[in-house]
Write a structure and sequence with these properties.
Elements: H1 2-15, E1 24-26, H2 29-34, E2 35-37, E3 41-44, E4 50-58, E5 64-73, E6 79-82, E7 86-90, E8 95-101, E9 109-116
Parallel strand pairs: 1-9
Antiparallel strand pairs: 2-4, 3-4, 4-8, 5-6, 5-7, 5-9
Length: 118
Amino acid sequence: MRKLILLTALFVGVGCGTNLPPQIEYVDRSLEDAVEIGDITVTRDAADLLYVTLPIRMKSNKTRSIDWRIAFYDAHDRPMSESSWSQKYLNANVTEYITANSLSPGAKDFRFNLRYSK
């Protein structure tokens, strides 16, 4: 019974806290509170390339510019490729979409880096 209580507490504790997907990394920590990330869409084409769409919305009533880049990883969490920084304008309170794809087949995971534009 004691183990059941501990396991239940562990699972409840894991569910609490941030809903931040593990594939999102903020270079500017203040950006984390300023944007809302939707459900990320991940698809694969016939050539085994990974396609990722990130819905992102600026929570404020201001249009802001952010920079983003994405890195793709293989099944052993080794980097396969990383894009250069790209700029995206986020209109106030409107969901925008960032779409990227791997450059070679076999990518299993990805990570976005986000920051305010310089």
